[in-house]
Amino acid sequence: MSAPLLAVERLSAGYGASRVLFDVDLELREGEVATLLGRNGMGKSTLIKCLTGWLKPTSGSIRFAGRDMTGAAAYRIGRAGFALVPEGRQVFPTLTVRENLIATASKRNGHAWTLSRVAELFPRLEERMHQLAGTLSGGEQQMLAIGRALMTNPRLLVLDEATEGLAPLVRADIWRALATLKQEGLAMLVVDKDLKALLPLADHHTGIEKGRVALRGTSAEISADEARLHALIGV
Q: Per the domain annotation, does 88 fall within a domain?
């Protein structure tokens, strides 16, 4: 079996004297979709901050694409092919949709993602290419945040709260887009609470509770303990 694209081993981290993560393990291979499950405040965002270089772990290791990225600067992790769709979208509000997309464009991996491909994935963005991002709806901004990440031509796409707070029709559009990305072989790590959408999309799941791995398995395996699963994510 090939080496994992992302390998997190015994990762611990926190803020000052407050420890948040405790010996977390996580693996993701090329082309796989994995999830991070858990209620708010359980450590998911802290783990993502460690993965993206915004927080230095206190112990453990992070390897990405065969390279040690433990505590590496965010720009190095991004250049290696790691792209984040952050919670809250964080688009550039005074730039147009087109300017947001080209601001992060990279020719990595054969420059597969272009403006036209993003517009094909999200037709709403094509209609709004010259509109300021700050005037878009929340759902359109989330589509733009995903498109902006794709324009870096990543090897791994991480979505923090992929559809939180969005209207049902917009959520459906985003889940369809993620299913398309999976079919194309893009590895993804998805944080969300929509089990109905996550279970058919993901290859495996990791549940975090109080900073520790509390659940791990395929969709079939974690669905077998429905009560535990729903208690873990708080729905």
A: no
Tell the burial category of 132 from Cβ atoms under 10 Å away from its Cβ (0-12, 13-18, 19+).
middle
Separation of alpha carbons 58 and 43, rounded Å: 14
pLDDT for 54-104, tens place per residue? Answer: 999 999 999 999 999 999 999 999 999 999 999 888 999 999 999 999 998
Q: What is the CATH number of the domain that holds 1?
A: 3.40.50.300
Q: Which domain holds residue 51?
A: 1-81+193-235
The pair of structure tokens assigned to 169 is 């029709």
pTM for this one?
0.93
For residue 182, what is the enclosing H or E element? Answer: helix 168-183
73 to each of 51, 55, 69, 77, 100, how far by Cα in Å? 10, 9, 8, 7, 23
In this structure, is residue 141 part of a structural domain? no
Q: How confident is the model over 127-149, as pLDDT tens digits? A: 999 999 999 999 999 999 999 99
In a domain, 95, yes or no: no
Q: Where are the beta strands (DSSP E) in the chain?
A: 6-15, 18-28, 33-37, 59-64, 67-68, 82-85, 156-160, 187-191, 204-209, 212-217
Number of compact structural domains in the chain: 1
Contact between residue 9 and residue 25 where contact means Cβ atoms under 8 Å apart: yes
